[in-house]
Specification:
Layout: E1 2-10, E2 14-17, E3 23-33, E4 41-48, E5 59-73, E6 82-97
Antiparallel strand pairs: 1-3, 1-5, 2-3, 3-4, 5-6
Length: about 100
């Protein structure tokens, strides 16, 4: 999905080590589509070599990749397994926009 978003919240970046021993930055952001406080908001993950250079309230043009995952979970009490679905949203690329003071 490509759209214009406003940054609602920026989490602290974390350094993670991949299986091959290299490191990368993982950072989560809450972004909201432009249009008001009741527009859709998403928790997205940024994976890269550097943390994102955005602050709360900034507008960005971004490409977000959404993926639905399926997992089979077995209860601890030995009951029947169940299938659950969860969604990943990854921020693939972004560009900061200079739009002035736009109110939600």
């Amino acid at each position: 999905m490509k759209n214009i978003f406003r940054i609602v919240n920026v989490c602290e970046p974390q350094t993670i080590t991949k299986n091959d021993g290299t490191q990368m930055i993982k950072q989560q952001l809450v972004i909201r589509e432009q249009g008001g406080q009741y527009e859709d908001a998403y928790l997205v993950t940024w994976l890269g070599n550097e943390p994102v250079r955005v602050t709360q309230g900034m507008c960005i043009a971004a490409s977000v990749r959404m993926r639905v995952n399926e997992g089979v979970f077995a209860p601890k009490d030995g009951g029947e397994s169940e299938v659950r679905y969860y969604q990943d949203a990854v921020l693939q690329e972004y560009a900061c926009l200079m739009l002035g003071n736009i109110k939600d």
